[in-house]
Amino acid sequence: MQKIYIAGGQPLKGTVRISGAKNAALAIISAALLASEPVILDNIPNITDVRILLDIVTKLGAKVAYQDETTVEISTPDCIDTNTPYQEVKKLRASNLLLGSLLARFHRAEIALPGGCNIGSRPMDLHIKGLQALGASINLEHGFIKGTCKRLTGSKVYLDFPSVGATENIMVAAALAEGQTILENVAKEPEIVDLANFLNSMGAKIRGAGTDVIKIEGVSQLGGGRYSVIPDRIEAGTFMVAAAATRGDLLIDHVIPTHIEPLIAKLREANVNVSEEDDAVRVIGTDELKPIDIKTLPYPGFPTDMQSQMMAMLTSVKGTSVIVENVFENRLQVADEFKRMGARIKVESRTAIIQGVNKLQGAQVKASDLRAGAALIIAGLIAEGETEICNTHYIDRGYENIEEKLVSVGARIRRA
Ligand code: EPZ
């Protein structure tokens, strides 16, 4: 079992380059199965989740070839297996995004119902309701979602909650459906826009991604092409918070500033100096950080994926900060690990009340999910003494070479 060791107290200084967006890459790789010709994807992050998904689509019969570290070619023949094995799916919830593309092109799909994970129950009712509206017949049998359909037909679908995954699955399915689909109350995350742009680059007809209503004119088939995935706004945000928390001076390069507006606004409210450039942001932490209140919401609200990282920073900001987690029902548990490091946090249901302390103390802690792991790294960077983090596999799911990137800007971090 690998562990990460951090000796705290070093401000981060220098430049770090952000990798491609995990949550865009996973959706786009799943959607690539729609294409009848080869698809080349650039700026694919070299992370565990991506490798697992590429492994799943290979097992289904697609041809996957890396052209270099971050460029991968995917060719999907007209007939592939459509049963994703439970062993794989339980490793990667995002394999549920295959449902839409397998149904749309192959008219069959069998996906193991992804188990819950540490941040919540992760239901799929909205995915299923939307795909049924397009004409798929879907049953739950022995822990598997089994779907079959003739050619899907366009329909009007209203999402009870702007679910990112449900929006992606239904949009992908509608791309090859007969006729028009109107999707309402959809997720507006930048990854949804990236997926729509990718699909349109292959011949789909999708309008309105990024707004509350997406209109899709179904086409009979999609061609191939080449597409570059957007930078990862959550990786960027994680480094921004690390720079602010360590009172450093960091240039985060290869980002799209508009994608991180919610975070920039909150950091400025905490008295962090943030300046935006074309495709970079510079973050300078000051000694007088201010306590703030945060509510996580669907985009363009404050992203739930940045909540634990902000909590790490706020543990040592004088005063009282309040975080309300509105998206996932169980995503405040990293507070228990921070308390082992001396933080003063009171968690009641979806609310965490943080009383800033002078200094966290290094301790042995464990990551419970991907973003909690990243938050523990930030806590280790500002703690006095050494912090030892276990369950580092969670961190590797979504962060490419995180130690190398941190060492390059002055952190004393190693993995053993
Ligand atoms: C995506 O998960 C991301 N994952 C998550 O990132 C991210 O936290 C989340 O969107 C919210 O932004 C990927 O893109 C691979 P949701 P997803 O469907 O699609 C409820 C990370 O750390 N819901 O928007 O699963 C659900 O219970 C990961 O990178 C239903 O009720 O998120 C939750 O409370 C973590 N029924 C809320 O919606 C459904 O059918 C948000 O879930 C689907 C969802």
Which helices and strands occur, and which strands form pairs?
Elements (H helix, E strand, L loop, with lengths): L3 E4 L5 E5 L4 H10 L7 E4 L5 H13 L2 E6 L2 E5 L7 E2 L1 H4 L8 H9 L1 E5 L12 H9 L3 E5 L2 E5 L7 E3 L5 H12 L4 E5 L5 H12 L3 E3 L5 E5 L7 E4 L4 H13 L3 E5 L7 H9 L3 E4 L3 E5 L8 E4 L10 H8 L5 E6 L8 H7 L3 E5 L2 E5 L8 E3 L3 H13 L3 E5 L2 H6 L3 H6 L4 E4 L1
Parallel strand pairs: 2-15, 3-14, 6-7, 10-11, 18-19, 22-23
Antiparallel strand pairs: 1-23, 1-24, 3-5, 4-5, 7-9, 8-9, 11-13, 12-13, 15-17, 16-17, 19-21, 20-21
Helix pairs in contact: 1-2, 1-7, 4-6, 5-6, 6-7, 8-10, 8-12, 10-12
Bound molecules: ligand EPZ.
Describe the structure.
The chain is of the alpha/beta class and 416 residues long. Helix content is 31%, strand content 26%. The chain contains 14 helices and 24 strands. The chain has helices at residues 22-31, 48-60, 86-89, 98-106, 125-133, 164-175, 190-201, 233-245, 261-269, 307-314, 334-340, 370-382, 393-398, 402-407, and strands at residues 4-7, 13-17, 39-42, 63-68, 71-75, 83-84, 108-112, 137-141, 144-148, 156-158, 180-184, 205-207, 213-217, 225-228, 249-253, 273-276, 280-284, 293-296, 320-325, 344-348, 351-355, 364-366, 386-390, 412-415. It has a four-stranded mixed beta sheet. It has a four-stranded mixed beta sheet with strand order 2-15-17-16, with helices on one face. Strand 22 (364-366), helix 12 and strand 23 form a beta-alpha-beta unit. Helix 1 runs parallel beside helix 7 and helix 8 packs parallel to helix 10. The mean pLDDT is 96. Bound molecules: ligand EPZ. The site of ligand EPZ has 24 residues, from helix 1, helix 5, helix 6 and helix 12.
